[in-house]
Amino acid sequence: MSGRYGDLDYSRLTTLSFSLGLGLFLAGELGEAGIRNAGMSVPTWEHRLFLGVAGVGILVAFLSPFVFGIALPLTE
What we know:
Strand content: under 5%
Distance between the termini: 12 Å
Radius of gyration: 17 Å
Number of strands: 0
Order of helices and strands: HH
Structural class: mainly alpha
Number of helices: 2
């Protein structure tokens, strides 16, 4: 019998979404560090882009265990 949301593998979704958040955070931080270490002059929007990617990565990494690991399985 399938649950309310179908046959979702919550542990796999939790792992993948946490990994996605961690990857976004690392991409933002490594991009910013690469610009800084190369001594390149880039527009302000590029710095904001890397900061935004890192911020979204933190949010995804912190919220995904609660959503896919706790909230959705409890609502089944």
